[in-house]
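Quick one: C-alpha cells for this chain, please?
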Amino acid sequence: MIDIVVGLGWGDEGKGATVDALVAARGIGNTLRFNGGHQAAHNVIADGVHHTFSTFGSGALAGAASWIGPRCTIDPLAAVNEQRALSRALARTTAGGGGAGAAGADSPSSPDSPGPPPGAGADSPDPSAPRVRVHRDALVTTPLHVVVNRARESARGPERHGSTGTGFGETIAYAHRGFAPLRAGDMDDPALIADHLALYAGRSDLIESVNAAWLARMAEDLRASFARVYDVVTDEELLAMIATSDVVMEGAQGLMLDQDLGTHPHTTWSKTTPAWAVELCGRAGVGHRIRVVGAMRTYATRHGRGPLPHEADLGVVEVHNTTSRWAGEFRTAPWDAEVLRYALDRVRPDVIALSHLDVFDDVLMSAPGETVGLPPVLVAAHGPDRRDRVFDS
C-alpha cells in the first residue's frame, strides 16, 4: 500500500503527524516528499518528543527512511541544523521521551533564520546522524535565494503575498524563467556551485554586488553541508524504492494553496494535489496500490495573507503556530461548506485524517446544521501526540 497524504486546506492540517502515525502503525520503512520543499515544516510529537520536519520525512521518529522527489527543493544549510535537532530528538525517543507541544504546522519553526552562516556546515559529519536520499533533479536553495525572497516580499508592503521567507518561491521562479537552476546532482562540484551563485546574483535586480571570494566560500559551505545530510539517487533508484516498498508519500501545504487551484497571488509554487505522487506511482508501475489520505482539522486555518472565509478568533492557542515576521499571522475559521467541497472534489481522498478533535468534537461549520459528506475517517486525532491518534479498524 502507498498512502499519499495531502492537505485539504491552506496548510497546517496535521499532515506530518498523520505521516508519523501511519508509519508507526504500519511499520512503513520509507517516506517520500513529493512536492514543495524546505519551506513546509511539519510538527510531530511522539510520546512527548517533538521535532519540526522540513528536510527529513515526518516518519523519521518512527524509524522510516527519508526520500525527496525530483519536484522538490532543498536547503543544505538549513538541513544541517535540522539534522542536529533530529539527532537530539531521536536520542530522546530512545531514552524514553520528553518535551511537549502541539502538532500540525506547515510554517518553519525558525522562519527568520535561513540557516547557519558560511562555515557552519563544514565540520566533520556524524556517521550516526540521520540522512536523506534526494533525487538528483531536486532544486537547491542558496542564501542568495533567501535574500532575494525577503527583499522582494518586503518591498510589496501591504500587498505582500504571504511568504515563509525561506527562498522557496525564488528557487522555483529562477527555473521557470528559463535559467539553469542548481540541482542536487550538482552539489559535489564547488566550482559549479560558485558559478551558479555568480550568475544568479548577476541576473537579480535585488543583489547589488558580490565578492568572488565570498561566493567561493559560500559554495564550499553549501557543498560540505549537502554532503553531511544528503545522498543523491537516480530516477531508477527512486522508482525502484516505490515499486518494491510500502511508502507514505508526504504532501506539502494544502489544496487551497495550489499553484493552479488556489487564490492568486496567495499561492505556492507547487501542485498540492496528489498529482505528482500519482505520477511517480504510475511510472513505478504501482498505481493500483494507492490510497489518498486527505488531512484536515476540525476547523480551518491559514498563515499570513490571503482569503479565509468566515475568519474568526476561535480561542485556539498553539505553541507551534504563532505569528512570525515572514509566515505571518496564524488565523482560524469554521469551515466553509463550498470551500471544503471544492477541496474534496479536487483531491478525491479515499479516507480522511481528522485532527484537533480535542478542540472541537466534530467538524466546525460556518452555518448551523451545515454538513459536507466526508469520506471515512481513517485517523482521528484527539490531541497533538502520536498516542492521541486512533485508527478506524
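Residues 99-122 have pLDDT under 50 and may be disordered.
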